[in-house]
């Protein structure tokens, strides 16, 4: 049976750690789909820290955009993270919010057709001040709308606050 869990919150709120513990509580052998591109050395170090936290029980998949090309039926799948996944579409589609949003929604819908437990991790980037940068504002719109879309389809939604999961849905 398909199940969708969304975990959202600010930077360093404990989203990924909580998602990993949740996945391991649901399966002894979960799948981890990492959506990030390596932008610079500092970001490479962040990725390495995430990888080191996971043990051999994880099946690790690196996928920047096309999640649906991976068959994950009957698995618990952690997707980390929606923000970076959306970033890849946004920049590949010339920062066109409408086109990127439709592409991400379509890929999301194709991916969740599988019978699996999906745990999506995302950032609540619209909770802060409005950026002075026009591209950042457009991306914040894209991210917010995609978070709403996933939340509308989710069975459970958690907001992470200082390492504490607060049930929203």
Q: What does this 3D model show about the protein?
A:
By secondary structure, the chain is of the alpha/beta class. It has a single domain, classed as P-loop containing nucleotide triphosphate hydrolases (Rossmann fold, 3-Layer(aba) Sandwich), CATH 3.40.50.300. It has 5 helices and 7 strands. It has a 7-stranded mixed β-sheet with strand order 3-2-4-5-1-6-7, with helices on both faces. It is an enzyme of class 2 (transferase). Keywords: ATP-binding, Cobalamin biosynthesis, GTP-binding, Kinase, Nucleotide-binding, Nucleotidyltransferase, Transferase.
Label the overall shape: globular
The separation of the N and C termini measures: 19 Å
- At the first level of CATH, the class is Alpha Beta
Q: What fold name stands as the CATH topology?
A: Rossmann fold
Under CATH, the homologous superfamily reads P-loop containing nucleotide triphosphate hydrolases
Function: Catalyzes ATP-dependent phosphorylation of adenosylcobinamide and addition of GMP to adenosylcobinamide phosphate.
GO molecular function: adenosylcobinamide kinase activity; ATP binding; cobinamide phosphate guanylyltransferase activity; GTP binding
Family: Belongs to the CobU/CobP family.
Protein name: Adenosylcobinamide kinase
SSE layout and pairing:
Blueprint: E1 3-9, H1 15-26, E2 31-34, H2 41-53, E3 59-62, E4 76-80, H3 82-92, H4 97-111, E5 117-121, H5 134-153, E6 156-161, E7 164-167
Parallel strand pairs: 1-5, 1-6, 2-3, 2-4, 4-5
Antiparallel strand pairs: 6-7
């Amino acid at each position: 049976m398909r199940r969708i869990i969304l975990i959202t919150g600010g930077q360093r709120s404990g989203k990924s750690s909580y998602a990993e513990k949740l996945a391991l509580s649901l399966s002894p052998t979960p799948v981890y789909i990492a959506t990030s591109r390596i932008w610079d050395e500092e970001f490479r170090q962040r990725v390495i820290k995430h990888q080191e936290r996971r043990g051999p029980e994880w099946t690790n998949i690196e996928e920047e955009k096309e999640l649906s090309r991976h068959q994950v039926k009957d698995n618990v799948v952690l997707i980390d993270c929606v923000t970076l996944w959306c970033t890849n579409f946004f920049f590949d589609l010339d920062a066109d919010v409408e086109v990127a949003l439709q592409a991400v929604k379509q890929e999301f819908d194709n991916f969740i057709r599988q019978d699996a437990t999906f745990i999506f991790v995302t950032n609540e980037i619209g909770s802060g001040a409005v950026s002075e940068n026009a591209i950042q504002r457009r991306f914040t719109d894209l991210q917010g709308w995609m978070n709403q879309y996933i939340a509308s389809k989710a069975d459970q939604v958690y907001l992470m606050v200082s390492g504490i999961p607060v049930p929203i849905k």
